[in-house]
Amino acid sequence: MSLPEPLEKLVALFEKFPGIGEKSARRMAFFVLHQSQTYAQELAAALVDLRSRLAPCSACGNMTDTDPCSLCRDSMRDRKTLCVVETAEDLISIEQAGIYFGLYFVLGGRVSPLDGEELSVERLDALLSRVKSLSAEEVIVATNPRVEGDLTYYSVLDALKDFEGKITRLSYGLPVGGSIGFADRVTLHAALESRREASKNGNPQKGR
């Protein structure tokens, strides 16, 4: 049985969401269908606002409706420590855990040869410029604990090869193959507190 065209189109759009299969997408579409006209209009307006009003912060890459973002404008934050994350979602996870009070830099991607993903030279150059402009003393590389995260980490290390400060990486607490976005506060705190300093050749040193 084929669905009415508007419903079929919405199901197809929901299926593009991460982790959403056909049945879940259909359930979500019927949920919207059974809500009031006002709800549908508010949902549509929220989606339009999401794309039209939010943009990457020119300083750190966080998604924001003001430029620079509120984190970059906060004079109370530690401006000598920079945490490098893959996505704005990872930034939000760390920030909401309330365990880190420095600044951030969002790479906006990762290195994944199987998926044809690479970090752009422009973004890595922007990271280096950010480090220099802050006169940062420590860069924390908070990439996800999986193969792609390791490759991304080494790309960041290479981009910062002339950086004379300390480079550290999140350590135990995060499960291998896991994701920062799904880690709880205690896990993130353990990973951040036990971060390890990286040597210039890419091999981690013991201790902080």
Q: What does the model show?
A:
The protein is of the alpha/beta class and 208 residues long. The chain has two domains: 49 residues, RecR Domain 1 (Helicase, Ruva Protein, domain 3), CATH 1.10.8.420; 142 residues, 3-Layer(aba) Sandwich (Dna Topoisomerase Vi A Subunit, Chain: A, domain 2). A five-stranded mixed beta sheet has the order 4-3-5-6-7. It has a two-stranded antiparallel sheet with strand order 1-2. The chain is elongated and about 65 Å long. The mean pLDDT is 89.
Structural class by helix and strand composition: alpha/beta
Task: Give the uncertain stretches in residue-range form.
Answer: none
What do the pLDDT scores average to? 89
Number of strands: 7
Whole-number tally of structural domains: 2
In the sheet with the most strands, the strands line up as: 4-3-5-6-7
The largest sheet, given as strand count, sense and whether it forms a barrel, is:
5 strands, mixed
Q: In percent, how helical is the residue content?
A: 40-55%
> Could you state the order of secondary-structure elements as H and E?
HHHEEHEHEHEHEHE
Report how far apart the termini are: 61 Å
Instruction: Provide the CATH topology of the largest domain.
Output: Dna Topoisomerase Vi A Subunit, Chain: A, domain 2
Count of discrete alpha- or pi-helical segments spanning 4 or more residues = 8
Radius of gyration: 20 Å
- Beta content: 5-15%
Could you name the CATH class of the largest domain? Alpha Beta
Shape label: elongated
- Corresponding CATH architecture of the largest domain: 3-Layer(aba) Sandwich
